[in-house]
Amino acid sequence: MGLELINNLMDVFTAEDPMAFAHPDGDPWADFREGMRIEWKMDFTYKHVLGKYSKFFIELTNHKFLATECPGCGKVWAIPRPLCADCLTITKWKELPGTGTLESFSISQFVPSFMKVEVPYVLALVKMDGADTLFTHQLRNYGDSTDVVKMGMPVKVAYATEPVDHPMLLMHFEPA
Ligand SMILES: [Zn+2]
């Protein structure tokens, strides 16, 4: 018997010292440089409650974009917050027009495979009209090149018209 006991073994290897230096007593990790690589298929199903944010996602299915407004200090939170982070007052839901301005963005040329999205992936930070905070989501449908994606460009919420695997995917941003 031996390593053949491990069904999904890929290989056993010896790891290099990534920061090799002359240690007076030799490599202190020498006894722990043996590595084992396995192929591990994971398939989890979670029951996931969206909590006090649920109404936001429910109204996305009605193609409405909700924020929360603080009755104490008047701040409008989008991403909504059930509790105002500035004055600790419980907020109220408020519908916004779903338009805004691109304040910042990052363009990813790689995304984890579980995200099931194409690259480049443009993550947008948007100041929604009527809100005092920034909202983060993917920017799509900007055309053939990310060159057109610029800070200050007007954007709008686009709503899913096909069933999605997570309520997060009920919306994304598009150029307005
Ligand atoms: Zn407040």
Notable traits:
176 residues; 1 helix; mainly beta; binds zinc ion; 10 strands; 3-stranded antiparallel β-sheet
Task: Describe this protein's structure.
The chain has 176 residues and is mostly beta strands. The protein has two domains: 3-38, no CATH class; 51-175, no CATH class. It is built from one helix and ten strands, in the order ββαββββββββ. The strands form three sheets. Strands 8-7-6-9-10 form a five-stranded antiparallel beta sheet, with no helix packed on it. The longest helix is centred in the first third of the chain and has 7 residues, at 54-60. The radius of gyration is 24 Å and the shape is elongated. The chain starts with 8 loop residues before the first strand and ends with a strand. The model has no long low-confidence stretch (mean pLDDT 93). Residues 70, 72-73, 75, 84, 86-87, 89 line the site of zinc ion (ZN).
| Helix-strand topology string | EEHEEEEEEEE
Count of distinct strands: 10
Oligomer: single chain
Show unreliable segments. none
What are the bound molecules? zinc ion
Category by helix and strand content: mainly beta
- Largest sheet at a glance? 5 strands, antiparallel
Shape: elongated
For the record, the count of structural domains works out to: 2
What value does the average pLDDT take?
93
Q: What's the arrangement of strands in the largest beta sheet? A: 8-7-6-9-10
Rg from Cα: 24 Å
The percent of residues in helical segments reads under 10%
Measured between the Cα atoms of the first and last residue, the distance is 65 Å
| Structure annotation, total helices | 1
